[in-house]
Every structure is written in C-alpha cells, then in structure tokens.
Amino acid sequence: MELHHLDPANLRPSFTSYSNNPPPLLTVKSSSKKMPDYNNTPQSQKQGLQFNKPSKKDLSRILRTQSAIKAIEKKANSSKYNNLWPKAVLEALDDAIRNNQWESALKIFGLLRKQHWYNARCQTYAKLLVMLGKCRQPNQASLLFEVMQSDGLQPTIDVYTALVSAYGLSGLLDEAFRTVNYMKTIPDCKPDVFTYSILIKCCIKLGRIHMVQQILEEMSGLGIECNTVTYNTIIAGYGKAELFELMENSLMDMLESGTCHPDIFTFNSIVGAYGRSGSIEQMEKWFEEFQLMGLKPDIMTCNKLVKSYGKAGMYKKMGSVVDFMTKRFYCPTVVTYNIIIETFGKAGNIEQMDEIFLKMKHQGLKPNSITYCSLVNAYSKAGLLSKVDSIVRQVENSNVVLDTPFFNCVISAYGHAGDVEKMVDIFMAMKEYKCKPDDITFATMIEACLAQGMIEAAQDLESKLVKASNTSERKFLAC
C-alpha cells in the first residue's frame, strides 16, 4: 500500500545525530554578516566554546539505550533486514516510545512491519498514537491510523481514545470531537469514561473551559459516570482558570457521587489553585479541610505552599513550611530549592538567592537546568552579566542535563546586554547538547540583532524561523 498524507477529518486516519566535537566559536563583526547556520556548520570550524559532557557513569545507561535505538534505526531504510532478532527490535521501539523520540520510533516501527515474524497488534498502535499526541504530531497520528487499517486491524476503543488524545493535545479539537462522534457509530467502540476524560483534558488545555459542562451533560445522557480521574481533571482545570466556585462545586459533586473520593491530587489541585491566585486564606483553609478528611500533605503539597507564600512575599511562612517538611521527614528536594531560588530571584534579592543556592549544594542536591535558568534570569534582570558568565562556567564543569529553555535564558541575558558575540556562541552550543532552537530562541536573537543595528542578521534569522514553522511532516516516517 502506498502511504500518503491523509485528511484527518476522514478518520482514515528525525532523531538528529550530533557530532561529539565541540560547537563552533563564532564572531559577529558587522551588521552585514549573516547568522551562522545551526545545522550546516563544517566540522573544520568546530572549536572554542564547549560544555563538558556528563560522566560515563551517569550516561552509561542512556548511551546503551541510544546506541541500541540507532543500531536498529540504521537498518530501517534497507529492505534486506526482514528477519532480525525480535527482542532487539521490540526493545528499541519501546525505548524510543518511552523517550518520546517519535521520529526514531516510527522508523523502527516501519522496520518492525517488514519482519517475517511481525504480527500487527492494536496495543502497539495505541502506544505509538499516545506518543505522537505527546509530541504534537497529529499528521503522523492520522497516517499511522491509516497504516493500522491497512494491516487489517479493527481499531479498539483504546486506539480511538489514543487518537482523540493525539488530535486534542495537538490543538485539533474539532478532529478530536469528530473522532468521538465516529466512535458512537461503532458498536464495540463506544466512547467510555476514559475517552471523555481525555476530551475534557484537551478542552481545558486549549482554554475551552466552557465545553466541559457540555461534555459532562453528554456523559450523563449516555449513562457514563465520572471517575476520580475525571473529577480531578475538571477540578484542576477550573482551578487553573481561577473559576473557584465551579472548582468547589465539582469537589462537592465528587463527594456526593458516593463512588469517588478526594485524593492527594484533589488536595494539591485546590491548595495550589488558591495559592497561585494569592488567596492565601482560602489556601490555608482547604489545607486544613483536607487533613480533616484524612488526607495527609505530601512533598508536592509542601512545595505548592512554599511557592504560594514566596509569591505573596510571606517569607517567614515560607520558611515555616520548610521547617514543617523537615519535621515530617519530607526533606526539601531540588524542586523546593528551585522554588525558593526563583522566588528570591524574581524579588531581586540576589544575596538571599545566592545563599539558598549554596545551601542547596551543601545539602548534596544537584542543581538542574531549572535552577540555572532562575539564576541566569535573576542576574540578567539585575544587570550582573559577570555572574551569568560564572553560571556558564559552572555548567561547563558539571554534568547537568541542559535543555532549550536554559539556552534561551542565557541567549536572552547576553542579547539584552548587547553581547551578540556571546549570544551566538551559546546558540551554536545548543547543537552539542541536542537542544533544538524554538520560536523563543529566534525571537530573542532577532530582537538583540535589531537593537544592535544588525538588520541583515535579523532578516536571516527571520527567514530561518519562517522556514522552520512551515516545515510539516507530510511523509509518514514508517514507510
């Protein structure tokens, strides 16, 4: 069967390898110089700024997994590998799915379908669809659904629910609803509470809160009762939207159902919702109420309290929560320290922030990318560019796993300070850590270039951004 792009409405329905060499050190000398190409820098130019690799001990498991995936993936484009060892192929596929490496997963899946021993299974398709939803790849999900039908499989309710998730989480809410409506016409695949819970989650995520009640009414008409997950999804959604009356009404519905009871997720959603909005009294009230219901706060509850008190500038109470955690044997975690560091950083209290950062390291806790982002943002806001340099040096000498948001923070810091040369160096270092630039990366660099009068460089970056945004996955990678 020839595979081609399919309209999702009909319901028929590349992990880049990087060199181990250091990234190039680039210098921008004039406004006429174009920005360097992130993807096509010659090997001979790769020198200068570099970030040390994580230790072999820390990376041994990851490298084994990645090498296994790559070894299998290399065979995907050849027709001669049709009788490989099943365990190797299946494990590589599972690893790629678990790590959300959708390009690798689809290539390996294509190889799997060529094997003499291959038997199509709905469970495999469901797992792939869930992954594609997480990776926001609705086109690939639609094509995968078509391939499933070509394999002679009848989609199960799990497969349809996964497809709903893939469309909904990717922002194609109309397609998600169309899929649910189509499910109603299939005797053995009627939407269930899990399908509707996913649909509610997607509506909330896309800001369509008003549709939640419509879905609940439809569920009631079909005789489908909410479960604990459904209630928690609704409560969390209303809380994030600061619709507190609806949030509390949903909690009452949950209590009155007789079959669903509040759990720690309910506890944290309501406490967190009031805390985020600055309604400290309500937060404290519900903190006590849930304990009277027999629920005990966990580390996440405490972290929400710390963040809420910090945001409100109630530092004494923030410290009291940390003391409470210690007494309850909830040792403050990296997340706890990150919250406190971010709090003091946003308040411009650099001295206190630095003190907490040192305490964090003395406690034996390893700073992560989020920690360094908060530090860089605070130093940049305070105009302490030398401290940003210090953070970059610390990262160079650590095995912290970096991500695109961290690089964006550093690029922003240097860009706002007018140090375009260092900004470009950091941009090129992203490739070494397999961190792909996003819209924020390009927008920040464009703004910095324009501020320095580098018109051509800014236009070059704009063209790269447009090209990246127009790239769509019209070819199914499992071909």
From TrEMBL:
It comes from the Eukaryota. The keyword Repeat applies. Keywords: Repeat. PANTHER family: EXPRESSED PROTEIN (PTHR47874), PENTATRICOPEPTIDE REPEAT-CONTAINING PROTEIN (PTHR47874:SF6). This is Tetratricopeptide repeat (TPR)-like superfamily protein. It comes from Abeliophyllum distichum. PPR repeats lie at residues 121-155, 192-226, 227-261, 263-297, 298-332, 333-367, 368-402, 403-437. InterPro entries: PPR5-like, PPR_rpt, TPR-like_helical_dom_sf. NCBIfam families: PPR (TIGR00756).
